[in-house]
Amino acid sequence: MKRFSDKIAAVLSVETIKMALMKTAYGTQDTFLAKLDSRILIIWYISFAIIPWFFHNRTILLGLFIFMLIITFISHVSNLIIFLLSMSIVTELGSMVVVAYILGSGIEVFLPLLILTMKLTTIALASIAVFTSMDPEKFSDALLSFGIAGRYSFGVSYAYRILPVLFEEYNNIFNSFRLRGKTPDNKGILGYRYVFYLIKIAILAFYPMILNTAKRTRTTVEALELKGFTYALDKPKVKKLKLAYMKIGKRDILFLIVSILIVVVIILTGKNYPL
């Protein structure tokens, strides 16, 4: 039991969470999906974010779910991300059972909710696999190539990169509050005074982080403007030069064709062998 709790504590440690966020934000470069063109990945993700909503056949949904599990496995997604997703699914299913029991309903209510959970989980796995394998810069360039405004595409990329920095900064501010603060002498029943003290610090730590983020963002904007960021966005030649490295190759086309064939096989199997 102690070893299990130690493993849980290791997974939820600040350093582990920070590394998982950095790995997710900066993309895994040694996977199969990471070697594909980012535009193909976005199209593939949008397709699998829509396809599950057209079906209620449980065989088809199960097939799509297994396909996404395989894609997620080969994408080397962080264990922390998988753990958080699993916890959300377990708690969601548990809450469904409780609500169904309180309302006096049986399995006939639980099954439709289970189908909805399977659809959402399939989409979540697709998003995790794609965005873990995509560098923020490539994601931003893909949005730019689709005609999205340059300021918006850069903002998405910037938010991707700044997330691990914000997490580390929040952790430092939180620890500085703990070092300078005074814990309650009497922790109360089940330590509720100490828990309230930690919650209060957690809320207060947000204010310095927001101010530091605003300052950092202004510095970034000023640095970009000094290099002519806005001027370059309005120039088609600059945009063409920036996106020149993006090329759709045989591997990208083959990936799309194989994905389409797998979906067709899953649909035909579901039609012939419905659960």
Structure, explained:
The chain is mainly alpha-helical and 275 residues long. The protein folds into two domains: 29-134 and 248-274, no CATH class; 136-244, no CATH class. Helices cover 78% and strands 0% of the residues. It contains 13 helices and no strands. The protein has helices spanning 2-11, 14-26, 38-50, 58-74, 79-102, 107-133, 136-145, 150-180, 192-204, 206-226, 229-233, 236-242, 250-272. The two termini are 38 Å apart. The mean pLDDT is 80. One of its GO terms (cellular component) is plasma membrane. It is found in: Membrane. Its main location: membrane.
SSE topology:
Elements: H1 2-11, H2 14-26, H3 38-50, H4 58-74, H5 79-102, H6 107-133, H7 136-145, H8 150-180, H9 192-204, H10 206-226, H11 229-233, H12 236-242, H13 250-272
Helix pairs in contact: 2-6, 2-8, 3-6, 4-6, 4-13, 5-6, 7-8, 8-10
Short key terms for the protein model shown above:
275 residues; mainly alpha; 2 domains; 13 helices; 78% helix; flat
Main sheet?
none
| Helix content percent band | over 70%
Count up the helices. Answer: 13
Q: SSE string, helix = H, strand = E? A: HHHHHHHHHHHHH
CA(first)-CA(last) distance:
38 Å
Name the overall outline: flat
Structural class: mainly alpha
- Strand share of the residues? under 5%
Please sum up the structure shown.
By secondary structure, this protein is an all-alpha fold.
